[in-house]
Structure formats: C-alpha cells, structure tokens
Amino acid sequence: MYKKMTAALLLAASITGSAGMLNPLFAQEQPQAKPEKPFVPKQFLLNIVLPCDTKEAMAKLLEEKYIERPYTISMGQMTVVGPGGSQKLPGIVKIWSNPETMSFSVTIEDPTPQNDVMCMLTNGTNLRPAPGFSGGGL
Fold it and tell me: Which residue of 48, 56, 106, 108 shows the fewest CB atoms closer than 10 Å?
C-alpha cells in the first residue's frame, strides 16, 4: 500500500515539476528559500542568592528605605534546585512600587503562616508601562 502511494506521489511530483519547467518564468533563476529552523528554547539553571528575612522585616525595609508599597499581589511559585532535585515552592508574589521615584521590588513569601519568610526576587528603577500596553481589561 505504501509503495503504491509513494509511486503515485513521485509520478505526480514529476509531472507537475516538469510542467513548471516549461514555463519561461520558472526557468529563470528562482531565489531559494532558506529552510526555517525550528525554535528550540535554550533552558538552563541559574544559581542565585536571594535576600530573605521575616515578612515584617522585609516589608519594613521596602516601606521605610525605598518608600515602596505593594501594588499587585498574586499566587506564584519559584523553582528551587537542591541535592535532591528541583522543587516548586508556592508563594505570594507582590510587586512593590514607589510612584514618585518609579522604583520597584518583586517579592515572594511563604503562604504558610507558620513559615515567616519573604524573599526579594528582583528590584529596579524606571518602572513604566510596557510598549503597546493599553491597560485594557485591568
């Protein structure tokens, strides 16, 4: 069955291919399309150190030193890699900001009340809307 199908496809390809060659426009040099390479994300692990403290101490630092307040809050997770492999840790993610200085910080805190820890994932300056963001739906 597959041999017959392959033979029919080859015959059809040769007929349409030779018919195209009779066309004077086809006989001219045609630009060759480059085969597209499939997108393969390059993933890697990055060992980092995060500043962590009690929820109260970290909030106090952000509120008093940087005059930042929580702007958004959501549930999130971070992946921690250790000797036993990787583990996804759920957490409360907050984006803190100061609208006067346009500074920001992103924290994650353990959602379990008895685990009193908050870590700063990143911080920076020049906070602004992303290009093309219209704010619709928020």
Answer: 48
For residues 80 and 121, give the distance between their C-alpha atoms in angstroms, rounded to a whole number.
13
Phi, psi of 58 (to 5 degrees): -65, -45
Cα separation, 34 vs 40, whole angstroms = 18
Q: How far apart are CA 133 and CA 127, in angstroms?
A: 13
Query: Helix, strand, or coil here: 59?
Result: helix
Domain boundaries, given as residue ranges, for the chain: 55-124
Q: How many CB atoms lie within 10 A of CB 118?
A: 23
Q: Each residue of 14-65: pLDDT tens digit?
A: 333 444 444 455 445 656 667 777 877 787 777 888 999 999 999 999 999 9
Main-chain phi, psi angles of 23, to 5 degrees: -75, 125
